[in-house]
Design brief:
The chain is an alpha+beta fold. The chain has two helices and six strands.
Length: 108
């Protein structure tokens, strides 16, 4: 694994209602995040009970997860941007330590 030249970053995972995808991706873009992955139709159990991942009426009615690898210095500004949102809407943010092999893909 030493040949991969791994570098430390943070992984942010944001789960929220699909109708708020544009808000979340705009916040990430403005913070300088170089890219992210969006996974739709999530299923799971949380404080509001079980949530089924099938489409209800449209894609706004389902839960999504946005995943990004970010430099540590972006964590605080991103969390500050989401704080007012999550004071009014359901959802959650996870932050974890990760290692990446191609740092140029994630840092400017």
């Amino acid at each position: 694994m030493n040949d991969l030249n791994l570098k430390s970053l943070k992984k942010i995972e944001i789960i929220l209602e699909g109708e708020h995808q544009a808000f979340a991706t705009d916040l990430l873009d403005r913070a300088g995040v170089k890219g992210y992955t969006i996974i739709g139709n999530l299923s799971g159990k949380g404080s509001q009970g079980f949530h089924s991942g099938h489409l209800m009426f449209n894609e706004d009615e389902v839960l999504i997860m946005i995943i990004a690898a970010i430099p540590e210095e972006l964590v605080e500004p991103i969390l500050e941007g989401f704080t007012p949102f999550f004071n009014q809407h359901s959802g959650v943010v996870f932050i974890s330590d990760i290692q990446v092999s191609r740092l140029v893909k994630f840092k400017g």
